[in-house]
Amino acid sequence: MSVNERADVVVPGLGHAGAHIMRALAEAGLDVVGVGPRLVAGERGHWGHIDDEMTPGAGYLLSAPRPTAPFARGASRAAGRSRTVGGVRGRATGDRVDRRAADLLAVKRERFVPGRGRLTGPCQVSVGERTFHARRGVVPATGAQPRLPAVRGLSGTPYWTDENAMAAVELPASLIVLGDCGLGVETARLFARFRCAVTVVERQPRLLSWEEPEASTLTERALLRDGVTVLTSAGASEVAYDGTGFTVHLDGGTEPLRGERMLVTTERQADLTGPGLDTAGLVASSAVVPADGQMRAGRGLRAVGDVTGRGPSSDVALYQAEVAVGGILGWPGPDTDYQKPARLVYTDPEIAAVGLTERQARNQRLRVRTSLLPITSSDRRGPQGRRCEGFVKLVEDADRGVLVGATSAGPAGAEVLYALNVAVHAEMSVERLRHAVPACVPFHRTVEAALGGLC
Ligand SMILES: Cc1cc2nc3c(=O)[nH]c(=O)nc-3n(C[C@H](O)[C@H](O)[C@H](O)COP(=O)(O)OP(=O)(O)OC[C@H]3O[C@@H](n4cnc5c(N)ncnc54)[C@H](O)[C@@H]3O)c2cc1C
């Protein structure tokens, strides 16, 4: 028998964006219902986010190529026959976190409803037998799911997605990673440091092809040092599984690859039919929910996060969530602006960037001036004593004298990027930036030195 319930706002999808919205609205005193099948607080936090400082356990192991005493259990397994990968991470971020997050949510005026939500009418969401009627609207934040590339035979094999890779409790002897898209490179490094033989297969002529070529070179060099085999300009044409391993045939008829496991990290796409977004007058065959600058997607409907096709990025998802919250509470701020997104790949060294690459700037017919400075000019060791390798690259619109893009690669690449992110967004003049004398922060000194190169 169906049960009708009321709420101010219903949020199907409690990932990065949804959990944030739920918390913010409840803190503002609204009656909020959050609906989620299993994870609370986002795909990235559970299956991604392979950085060194923020991932408990695994982060330590990542930055120490040979696991040592503080993680003796993980270390001995890593060295022995039954080696764990995601098990270390899984203990830190799996079910326990779900329970903790659900408990946290229940403390406030939020109601957590386990299950899959489906829009069944305007301002109406059904979860099993329960139907929730939202007075102030529904905010779908149902994210995106992995999408398979069109490779013959692939769909019939037990390939891994990012989720399988992070949940793995046995380290395969070898792993083929199909597609780099940031996550592929991050995962390749992780497995290689557990001494798995990893091969990355990338169709583009270089890794991280959307970033500066210097970032690609640096990343490839670091992966090679970790023992990863990198095959670029290499497309997979056919995949087969024989019960013990995968055979991957490459375009061009070169020798097929063999691997015990294969990870596919190519694309992700929103599923609009599952959450019933077609009932809101949105076209279900479309890949995304189009939302305006205030995240409005229809009457009583605001969509946020990956489902809107902006990103995919947890930072963009949170940004949109903030905008949506302001609108629902009746104090809307400025419309969203996606002109200069910041980007980050958690490799070692980290690759962080904002705005235009040199090539993009030239394609826009800007008069471009660039400056490239290696961070080895600063003699400080990176976090946890890591090698100090990387660079800062600045892209200037020479006619206006402002930065239009920047890349910061290094052990603290993302941290250093923040100052550059602000400068690019504020369109600060390079001349003015030269007067922003940094405190004694060695990595930031590279930015100062690179600014000197823009003349
Ligand atoms: C492995 C991995 C690594 C990543 N690394 C980074 C990174 O380093 N930096 C970065 O910025 N971004 C990263 N991302 C991308 C980032 O995680 C996403 O962009 C972000 O999580 C999007 O937030 P969201 O709220 O839209 O969706 P998600 O966080 O994906 O949450 C959506 C939630 O909705 C649930 N759901 C789906 N359908 C329904 C339904 N019908 N009813 C109820 N709930 C439903 C899903 O189970 C999920 O829990 C990574 C993603 C992955 C998968």
The CATH homologous superfamily of the largest domain corresponds to FAD/NAD(P)-binding domain
Tell me the strand percentage band.
Answer: 15-25%
CATH architecture classification name of the largest domain: 3-Layer(bba) Sandwich
Q: Helical stretch count? A: 14
Radius of gyration: 23 Å
Q: What is the mean predicted local confidence, pLDDT?
A: 82
**CATH class group of the largest domain:** Alpha Beta
Give the biggest sheet: 6 strands, mixed
- Total of domains: 3
Total strand segments:
22
Helix content: 25-40%
Shape: globular
First-residue to last-residue Cα separation:
73 Å
> What is the fold-level CATH name, i.e. the topology of the largest domain?
FAD/NAD(P)-binding domain
Characterize the structure shown.
With 455 residues, this protein is of the alpha/beta class. It has 3 domains: 3-143 and 270-328, FAD/NAD(P)-binding domain, CATH 3.50.50; 147-266, 3-Layer(bba) Sandwich (FAD/NAD(P)-binding domain); 349-452, 2-Layer Sandwich (Enolase-like, domain 1). It contains 14 helices and 22 strands. The protein has helices at residues 16-27, 43-47, 58-63, 72-79, 86-93, 95-107, 162-167, 183-193, 213-225, 314-328, 358-363, 413-426, 430-433, 442-452, and strands at residues 3-12, 32-36, 110-114, 118-121, 124-127, 130-138, 145-147, 174-178, 197-201, 229-231, 236-241, 246-250, 257-259, 261-264, 267-269, 296-298, 301-302, 342-345, 350-355, 368-374, 391-397, 402-410. The strands form 6 sheets. The chain has a 6-stranded mixed sheet with strand order 3-2-1-6-5-4. Helix 1 packs parallel to helix 10 and helix 5 (86-93) runs parallel beside helix 6. The longest helix is centred in the last third of the chain and has 15 residues, at 314-328. Mean pLDDT is 82; it is low at 52-97. The structure holds flavin-adenine dinucleotide. Flavin-adenine dinucleotide is lined by residues 12-18, 35-37, 39, 42-44, 47-49, 116-117, 141-143, 162, 183, 274-275, 305-307, 311-315, 317, 344, 346.
